[in-house]
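Dear Dr. H.,

I hope your travels went smoothly. While you were away I took the liberty of generating a structure for the chain from your last submission, since the lab meeting agenda had it listed for discussion. I wanted you to have the full record in hand beforehand rather than looking at slides cold. The sequence, exactly as received, is reproduced here:
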Amino acid sequence: MSVMNESFAAKFPPGPPPNLIRALFGAMQQNPLDYFSAMAQKYGDVSGMRIGNFRSLFVNHPDLIEDVLVNNARKFHKGRILQANKYLFGEGLLTSEGDFWLRQRRLSQPAFHRTRINAYAATMAEYTEQLVSTWQDGEERDIHEEMMQLALRIVGKTLFDADVTQDAKEVGETLDLLLRMAANFGRTVLVPLWVPTPRNLRAKLGVHRLEKVIYRIISARRASGRDTGDLLSILLQVRDEDGTRMSDRQLRDETITLFLAGHETTANTLSWSWWLLAQNPAVEKKFHEELDGVLGGRIPTVEDLPKLNYLNHVLTESLRLYPTAWGMARLAAEEHEIAGYPVHPGYGVAFAQWVVHRDPRWYDAPLEFRPERWENGLAKRLPRFAYFPFGGGPRQCIGNTFALMEASVVLATIGQKFRFRLVPGHKVTPLASITLRPKDGIQVKLETRK
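The corresponding predicted structure, in token form, is as follows:
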């Protein structure tokens, strides 16, 4: 896979033949993870995709990815999949563009300052302890569902000072529905929401359910007049240049984006981490030994986290193999060039962390779960975008530090008390939607650590 394409005269890179039906119903739709992996193997660092009159470049070299996400970020907007999901995210941080996005990002940033995030650690540990207290040795549970409900409660309390325990099940089921639907990329892009298909009607109903929760939280906070210093307090106090406050719709867009993304990403990371640990006894043993040595059975604090080196390597390796953001896309707003190929306005540019993170040029035995690979400074030797689970550039995930700390606290708290054994016969399959989640959950048997 060579980064330099010798045929600079070519106007569009090589790739599969254009076929609208195949794009909607074929291999790219049925298993995008395998599809893009095969594209990288067959066509190299830059390949071309044509779906109808839409053209997109698929890019796999870290230097070329950095060129788009960092060096020329202003030339690109978010991709068509996220734009098509604005019915869910509105004009929130995930989907908005330009000066409006920059303003919203600056307003939200203080809620994710490291000092404030560190203060959330106690809440994260407390809520995890509450969950674990309901578990019994020998029980079977869907660990993905457990992590989703836990992460939802944590994000509700820390960012919005709201108890969403009563909503956790409904929100989880609704999000599961919406993400399964969003996994159908072709239909998401090509069938507008206003077309009254059964799929679109289900999507609208799901969004309405989520909005009820969000608007209830906003209304309760407005009525109380409390300023708790959390994200919602910050957004409620903001005034535009003309002195007006954010409308409920603006608040809804920012809140629903962070409410959903803030727990979905962490829950998936935790779920894949538990799944990988359960399949690798030697790694799991070393993970437990570190917890016992550093914590000795007590609840972890933020001061403990830098001492849990092996836990950090487990998380890093889990995010390498199963990045919750498995792929990204941008839409060209200006003329550009990638490896000699012109990129015209309206062209798409796609990258897949799933593919780059498993590239043997950067990782030995790339399909193996080896937390030890990170012990001797590998991260510093890698090209910058050989590992980018949270994206990069100015649009990098605002909550990456929040997500990593939460995942660390939850792993350390649960790992001291339980190990998980996979239920035989239950197949775990990644679902590549907006995020990478286990399609049918992860069934485990709880085993109390003696």
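Two observations you may find useful: The CA atoms of residues 218 and 248 lie 8 Å apart. The chain has one domain: 20-448.

With kind regards,
E. W.
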